[in-house]
Amino acid sequence: MLSRRTVGYIEGIVSIIVNTILFIIKYSAGITYNSIAVITESIHTLSDSLTSAVVVISFWIAYKPPDEEHPFGHGRAESVGAIVVGTLLAVTAYELLNESVRRYLSSESMMFNWVLIVVLLLSAIVKELLARWSLRLGIKYDSKALVGDAWHHRSDAILSVLVCLGILLSSYYWWVDSVLGMIVSTLIMFIAIKLVINTSKDIMGYKLPSKLEVEIKNLISSISKDISDIHHIHIHKYGEHTEITLHIRLPPNMRLSEAHKIASKVEEELKSRYGWEVTVHIEPTKE
How far apart are CA 226 and CA 248, in angstroms? Predict the structure, then answer.
């Protein structure tokens, strides 16, 4: 199986190449048939290359080895990249919403042309396939940056379809692409905001989900009957590297060597089960 870093590079580079080719095709068609809508859509496709470049750069930084200033490595660069991608996705959604409202208010329709329709449908199919591929990789390798890039591809595919519908139905329903554009842009904006919020948790640190917290507490409690009051369980992600800190209470009269042995056992068990680097803080049981 390919490494996570290699997958990030491949997804980003393939996306840049595909977006550039589609830009050339759509821009040429827009210029040839004097379609401002298609020219604008082609520029949106080219802008997706910037998003994919952000993915490549974030993966490159994320996998740099730890140094004196970054003892836990540079893994959070990927999270920063995902936030940038999410922000760019939100900007794309805003621009689509703004353009849809403008077209609706001006009752703007598009000129019918079969060549433009074929070009737009081809672009939509390619970008949707690219989106599904990127999304599958993002889920498989737990990468929010790749998930965000996937939604950029999908937003471009949707925009191509909307422009295509506008050309096809302009003679009957001039408003169809504008109204659909408003609905879709709102959905994309919601996805972008959710992506940014969820990724921010990885940088700020967060409380574990209740189900996982109960599971961890049960595992720790089974290690020693002397352990009590397991609390302050916090997780900190650095890309693939995950640090978890927690507090446990042990009897105040327990020998230091025995307490250390129990704490080490807790760390070993959690690392074995979840692959985390664990730090256990010991406190005396309350009198």
Answer: 10
Question: Which structure tokens are listed for 74?
Answer: 């540079």
CA distance readout (Å), 50 to 88, 146, 218, 258: 9, 13, 46, 55
Tens-digit pLDDT profile for residues 89-108: 888 788 878 877 887 888 76
- Domain ranges (residues) in the chain: 4-200, 207-284
Q: Which residue from 167, 93, 182, 163 is spatially nearest to 124, judged by alpha carbons?
A: 163
Instruction: Judge: domain 207-284, CATH 3.30.70.1350.
Output: yes
- As a whole number of Å, the CA-based R_g of the chain is 25
CATH number of 4-200: 1.20.1510.10
CB burial class (10 A; 0-12, 13-18, 19+) of residue 207? Answer: exposed
Whether the full predicted model's pTM is greater than 0.85, yes or no, is no
